[in-house]
Amino acid sequence: MSYSQETSLILDSPRGKDYTSANQPLYYSSTYHQEVLGGAADYDYARSGNPNRSLLEEKLANLEGGNHGFAFSSGIAAITAVFMTLKAGDHVILPDDVYGGTYRLTERIFRRFGIDFTTVDQTDLGAIARAVQPNTQLIYVETPSNPLFKVTDISGVSQIAKDNDVLLAVDNTFMTPLGQSPFKHGADIVIHSATKFLSGHSDLIAGAVIVNCPKLAEDIYLIQNGTGSGLGVYDAWTLTKNLKTLAVRFNQSVTNAEKVCRFLKQHPAVATVYYPADSDIHVKQAVNGGAVIGFRLADETQAQTFVDNVTLLLVSVSLGGVETILSHPATMSHAAIPELVRRQRGITQGLFRLSVGLENAEELILDLQQALETTINRQRNNKKKQYVSQCYTNQ
Ligand SMILES: *Cc1c(COP(=O)(O)O)cnc(C)c1O
């Protein structure tokens, strides 16, 4: 049948829907034709599910060794979905150095809905056990933590959770499913900011929740669909594509990070290096030390000088990209924490976080080396600056 121009503009030919392409096509459709009224078609409305998100969610579940994966519009949306499984009157135990966005979410939003949170130093299993109350429903763990790379014994917390009939959620963003498998150590819920290593190209914001228990999966799905926080089609497609290179990206980043870590540890301008592989507990529960390193300058007043002099590194928020990212927690990820609290926690001006990418490791080290030298040789540096400004004045 041939249609008018108006109708033809609306109708798509069936052609192009089912080629055997290497990559899944983008299903940019908010709604789907329903052949049987009230029937159970795979998809009806894209908020409730769509082929691009489904493929990604299956991949995420397999990667973590879980049964059900859910993709969200951000890591924070994923964490929100997990807290939304709770109700007013429930209590949650958090690490005292939890990711800043998670802290803001719990303190400023979920508290308003009557959910109570206690933060404890989760390197101390006894402190976690003592924080359990009759209304505790969830223990939330982030290991290694950020930015001081404190390590929590996942199996140890899992035992406390089981003894008290409490669920255990682990934010596994820093290690990726390739570096650490929380389910193997007794976690019930695994969370990722997929913005970081999973996507890996600093190109999108996404989050993931993976669970095994069908009841939990039902709850998380209700929230994903019911609050409309699922990941959009294009980002789901891009993340699926980017995941194909996760293993080569992560492994190479870790290899580079190990080299950079060795370099930083012997440099006189560096006072302390924080790397998870230095923790016995981390080594026991993870495959490697990951690709993110913390370090503290010997002269904490030289943070800006250091930043002024790096040339290869991207100085920014975030981590897990193909490019090496240098972050300054005190003014970036942890700026929202009052300065006194920050100082008590060791998040001072001289503390940096380095997410090591895929550049040539020797070149990364050379860049760090020359930038670190400038923090020692302040006087020479100042003289050079004066000279430069004189040149400009003379023009
Ligand atoms: C970035 C991050 C989050 C938040 O994820 P978004 O994708 O930025 O919403 C949560 N946890 C950790 C450990 C993170 O690094």
TrEMBL record:
UniProt keyword list: Amino-acid biosynthesis, Lyase, Methionine biosynthesis, Pyridoxal phosphate, Transferase
Keyword Amino-acid biosynthesis annotated: yes
Enzyme Commission code(s) on record: 4.4.1.13
One cellular-component annotation, GO: cytoplasm
Main enzyme class: lyase
Modified residues (N6-(pyridoxal phosphate)lysine): K196
CDD domains tied to this protein: CGS_like (cd00614)
One GO process term, biological-process aspect: transsulfuration
Reported cofactor(s): pyridoxal 5'-phosphate
GO molecular function annotation: cysteine-S-conjugate beta-lyase activity; pyridoxal phosphate binding; transferase activity
Keyword presence, Flavoprotein: no
Family, per entry: Belongs to the trans-sulfuration enzymes family.
Protein name in the entry: cysteine-S-conjugate beta-lyase
Species this chain originates from: Macrococcus equipercicus
Organism phylogeny: Bacteria, Bacillati, Bacillota, Bacilli, Bacillales
